[in-house]
Fold:
Amino acid sequence: MYFFGPDIQRNADRAKLVALAEPDQGRRSSAIDDLGGDIRAYGDIEELLGDPKVDAVIIASPDFTHQELLDKALDAGKHVICEKPMATTLDDARHMARRAQAAPQVVQIGFMLRYAPMFVRIKEIVDSGIIGDLVQVSAAEIIEYYHGASFYRRWQRFRKNSGGLLVHKACHAFDVVNWIVGSAPTQVSATGNNDTFVAKPDAASRCRDCSLAPTCPAVYRDDAYNYVYPTVAERANPGELGNDICAFNSEKDIIDNATGMASYENGVRLSFNFATTGQRHDRRFMFVGQRGVVTASQADGTLVVEPVGGEIETTVLPEELRDEHGGGDEYLLQSFLDSVAGGEPPAADVVAGMHSLALALGATESIDRDGAAVDLRPHLEGLS
Ligand SMILES: NC(=O)c1ccc[n+]([C@@H]2O[C@H](COP(=O)([O-])OP(=O)(O)OC[C@H]3O[C@@H](n4cnc5c(N)ncnc54)[C@H](O)[C@@H]3O)[C@@H](O)[C@H]2O)c1
Structure:
């Protein structure tokens, strides 16, 4: 509703949105109204896949459903964009990777940052050799507080649905780092915890009943964008609190912050931080080479190249390229359409999906094992 729908409509000379499948009747009819035009609505993916007008599908259902839907889409002969994370378990992801690699269709993972101008530029700079061979990377993913709180209210708060937030959210940062490093991760260790979004005895289970609501930074705002597509009926009753489950008292099994380190086959080392308590959203990076560094902040739109013996070069990206997606969605779609038309296979492929997932699930396992190093190589063997 927010990314691919409008992007397809903006690329009407190359693609047409012909159908959508959505099991929830209210969401289905609202989506049809909002998208407008001649779009067929199905309650079930099987019906949509039987529609001869459909050449390609975008899987944008909860993370744990991706494997089953990819199988069905490939069985039906469709090209696929599968939203990130590719899956929530390495078994599912490995199965998907094998299937995709054996299929004639295009399968692309929704890692839009690979197509966002800031990261395309960083990759060019690093590959140009201007800062020498890459040695280290530091990466921080900081989610804005209210956005963070939304995860502790929704399906993402259970690992069985999302794999946890390193999988569901940090997968983007892991993916662009993997891409820029240009190598497979081999080992990861991390510590992390749920430190902030823990049970508050004084808080109620619903914001509407809570005496702490007036000063609570996570209080559900019925007039705000709540990171969920609202149906027409929900929008007609803006005074009705919707999913105002307490982000602190909700049942959950995911962590809200993590710190870790990883290594790559080519010797590069990564340190990373993840937090959901930011004043604003940002991803911050430092790429350290043998002859200089590159630093970047997605929210500030700044990209600074500092080569040893050279001039410091600062680029400030325009406002529209500074949000979480960095302007990458439409380029991702166009790259997919190029691949479907016989062009190069997508950069954000199933191997990228596996590498990001292995790093994220390995870090999650390491957190469970008090920071023990997790060897990723057995999971990634034979992938190319
Ligand atoms: N690329 C990005 O940055 C980005 C941003 C947001 C979400 N996502 C991904 O998009 C996916 C959806 O996330 P969301 O926040 O929109 O979730 P959501 O819960 O708001 O929407 C998911 C929809 O899928 C429907 N659904 C469930 N099972 C289905 C099935 N078998 N067939 C068809 N539809 C089914 C649900 O009814 C729901 O309406 C997730 O994988 C998420 O990680 C990616």
Remarks:
- The chain has a mean pLDDT of 96.
